[in-house]
Amino acid sequence: MRRLVIVSNRVALPGEGAQRSGGLVTGVVDALHHSGGLWFGWSGKLKSARSPPRLVEADGVTYATVDLTRADYDGYYSGLSNAALWPLFHYRLDLVNFTRQDFAAYLRVNALLADTLAPLLKPNDLVWVHDYHLIPMAEELRRVGAAQRIGFFLHTPFPSLGVLAALPHYLEILKSLCAYDLVGFQTIEDLTAFHDAIVRRAGGEVSADGRIHAFDHDLRSGVFPIGVDPDAIADMAARAVKSRTTRRLHESLQGRKLIIGVDRLDYSKGLEHRFKAFACFLEDYPEQRNHVRLLQIATATRSEVPEYCALRQRLGALAGDVAGRYARLDWAPIQYLNRSFSQHSLAGFFRISSVALVTPLRDGMNLVAKEYVAAQNPEDPGVLILSPFAGAAYELDAALIANPFDPGAVAEALQKALQMPIEERRERWRDMMEVLHRNNITAWRESFLGVLGSPI
Ligand code: ADP
Fold first, then answer.
1. Co-location of 156 and 235 in the same domain
2. Do residues 328 and 354 share a domain?
3. Atom number of ligand 1 nearest to Cα 371
4. DSSP string covering 383-443, please?
5. Which atom of ligand 1 is nearest the CA belonging to 264?
6. Are residues 287 and 168 in the same domain?
7. If DSSP codes are grouped into helix, strand and coil, which group holds residue 358?
8. Are residue 349 and residue 409 in the same domain, yes or no?
9. Residue 336 φ/ψ, nearest 5 degrees
């Protein structure tokens, strides 16, 4: 078996991933344990001067991390990655804050990471690079002589050409992507947008099976929707409902139905639209007042990017407005928490929720949608309300699909979910579980690595 090398912006050292283990962490750690391997990336720490990588071995996996300087962090991470590429890839041109200095820092840090990684590579390694922070990595590794197979997976959406072209260096980004041997996306829409840009702006050729010839390179491309481990989540949820935390939440409801939202506090998640839609629901269906509660968990992230602080303030005010308008002496319609919970606690919360509101304005996949479904009680499953702009909607078409830009549609979906007969709930849930089992995290990893490692 070939050794696997994972490259991602942030490496979760052993023990670190437990609190907030997103899909990437779970999928990657499993894969590395399976084949043995190396996980390379930023340590999450800042240093005043560059230092050699730190190597840690645990359970057959080598973790190699580098620290960044403050200037690297500001330009590469907070700047180009999170203030330019992230909003651009999520269709928020109004929030793109591009500077040439940040772009230079992005290239510089990618080159630095490649210089550090190259000596750690073995000739037969399979190298798998993750996400928008590291698009130039293959080009930089090739520059220092790496001849290994290198694949790239984009966890975010890939925007259509009209949006992509707003990035001054978008052709360089396309060229960097074409330096990989395989480029993978979450949905057919992302893949099609990439092909369209290659054909129309880079003069490349794309064949029906996803093979691409562009910038003097041959590569492959495809759709590999990231999954979860539904059985592990189901087990965890079944145990978690008995925990003190979940029981406390359950008792506090006093028989009311719980509607849950769990997100990072990010403008792509559509939280303002969600709060307004919930107010619209309380307005349109007054008989539901006092019978439901919206629990919105929104963990603050990227607080050094100004837009995130502004969003946090607006959301706090909006949650206060909704509560102020509809609360009664013995009922609060909305419970809004800016903290994170363990995966175990979240699984318990999901299981006792009658409805999940997963209504991003744009999202690569949205693993919360899949986690919610996997955590349900098969006898009495809750209902998933899902935005068509989440990658998950391409697979979970048995969810109630509601456009987050239409508060009336989300309000209607809430009413339908709360009144849905048990048979329909079970049928929709079974359909979704079948998809989760078929496209689970192992299938994601094996299908990507299968193509990356296969003869060209
Ligand atoms: P993103 O990658 O944009 O954050 P996803 O929904 O794809 O969105 O993945 C988020 C992951 O982080 C999920 O596994 C989810 O359970 C976890 N998560 C999100 N919000 C919280 C929170 N408040 N506390 C703990 N985990 C969270």
1. no
2. yes
3. 16
4. EEEE-TTBGGGGT-TTSEE--TT-HHHHHHHHHHHHH--HHHHHHHHHHHHHHHHHT-HHH
5. 20
6. no
7. strand
8. yes
9. -120, 120
Protein residue with its CA nearest to atom 13 in ligand 1: 22
Same-domain status, 218 and 235: no
Tokens representing residue 58 in the block: 């645990």
How far CA 359 is from CA of 382, 401, 410, in Å, comes to 16, 9, 9
Instruction: Tell me if 44 CB under 6 Å of ligand 1.
Output: no
Cβ(262) to ligand 1 under 6 A?
yes
Q: What is the CATH number of the domain that holds 262?
A: 3.40.50.2000
- Pocket test of ligand 1: the residue of 130, 187, 367 to mutate, having most ligand atoms within 8 Å of its CB, is 367
Q: Is there an atom of ligand 1 within 6 Å of 367 CB?
A: yes
Tens place of pLDDT per residue across the chain (456 aa): 899 999 999 998 887 754 444 567 767 777 788 778 999 999 999 998 878 999 999 988 999 999 999 999 999 999 999 999 999 999 999 999 999 999 999 999 999 999 999 999 999 999 999 999 999 999 999 999 999 999 999 999 999 999 999 999 999 999 999 999 999 999 999 999 999 999 999 999 999 999 999 999 999 999 999 999 999 999 999 999 999 999 999 999 999 999 999 999 999 999 999 999 999 999 999 999 999 999 999 999 888 888 899 999 999 999 999 999 999 999 999 999 999 999 999 999 999 999 999 999 999 999 999 999 999 999 999 999 999 999 999 999 999 999 999 999 999 999 999 999 999 999 999 999 999 999 999 999 999 999 999 988
- 72 belongs to the catalytic site: no
Residue 284 annotated in active site = no
- Cα–Cα distance, 295 to 26 (Å, whole number): 26
Considering the domain architecture, whether residues 248 and 323 belong to the same structural domain is answered as yes
The atom of ligand 1 lying closest to the CA of 364 is: 7
- Domain that residue 117 falls in: 4-227+441-452
